[in-house]
Amino acid sequence: MVYQYINDTSHVEAIIDKFLEVVSAQPEQRGRRVSFSNGYMDYTEGYKLRLHLRANGILDTKHWKKAMIASGEITKRAIKAMDLPENNLVFRNQKMTFKEKAESDPAAAGTVIFDFFKQDDDAANLERLVKFFGRRYDTLSYLFFLKDRDTYFPCRPRKFSEAFSLLGMNTKCFKSFTYENYCAYNEAVKELATVYSNHAGHINTLDAHSFAWTISQHKSIYNLIFNTELISDTSGKQERLSSVKVRLNQTEFREKTVAYWDGCCAITGCSLADILEAAHIKSWKDCSRNAECISPYNGLLLTPNLHNLFDLGLISFSEDGSILIADRFSEQQQKELGIDKSMKLRIVDPKREEYMKHHRQKYGFGEKTT
Questions:
Q1: Considering the entire predicted model, what is its pTM?
Q2: Residues 253-292: pLDDT tens digits?
Q3: H helix count then E strand count, the chain
Q4: Are residues 253 and 206 in the same domain?
């Protein structure tokens, strides 16, 4: 199987192994095999299935009649299902917003909600929901989850972006709540369920959702998984878990660098996102603090050839952003690689200068190395 969102199954499998080891040691497990329907996992994550059943019991969509729209009954049921105390899938302020908007025009809200649960065109249903209730990921994904828990899953984008980053997964689906992006998120969760099932025994997609949430948001579990020195894979090999942290930092650094340079090369302005690379000015190993490693001021978004030249110290940049060219980089070589002495950084920022000065010193561009 070719995975669209999981880039390295062995990386995910290594985290699964450590997850199973950590959960097995929890008092609630009492020696039982790790599953998502008993012990620690049921205690922390099992509420989602129970919430789904209780909310759908309140909605009782099978017995809806259109006459219930005008009476306001559908709107009342939707508000009650949204406002359940155990529903921590939706932020409290968004529950209140949902209630206020629904009560402002119960008949209109009831029509939108009736159509959402009774009609099959979910892309069109989403746009009708957005027009009435707004484009909030947690609120809308909760409604989709209530409609079909095997296809759609709750989502708080910032939290799941963190989880997917830990797993080395594609996080582009969190840009905004469009039907296309939301479906991509759901497909990523399904792929995670497949990898987990193939590696450690069958789980359903809601279990995969719980697994991703647990490793990133349950701090006691996160600390035991990611603040240990080693994890084991199924073949008994040891892999340093620091590589997981590095991946997470690299993902965050790239996202910040892409955002800073507005998705375009820092020099040429090339906007072909798939080829652009986030280059550290002060290299990862030279950074003394994590904040330096992930700072967007320590990053340049470059085409691959410029990235390589910069990392080799064949080019650098002056305080005013002008390109500097190493003596050993001949004019013929410059010509072959498309380097022009008029090249300049598109954005000059004083906050970048401390990093650029380090680069110039390191490669001997007219300044003494400290």
A1: 0.64
A2: 888 898 899 999 999 999 988 789 999 999 888 888 878 8
A3: 18, 6
A4: no
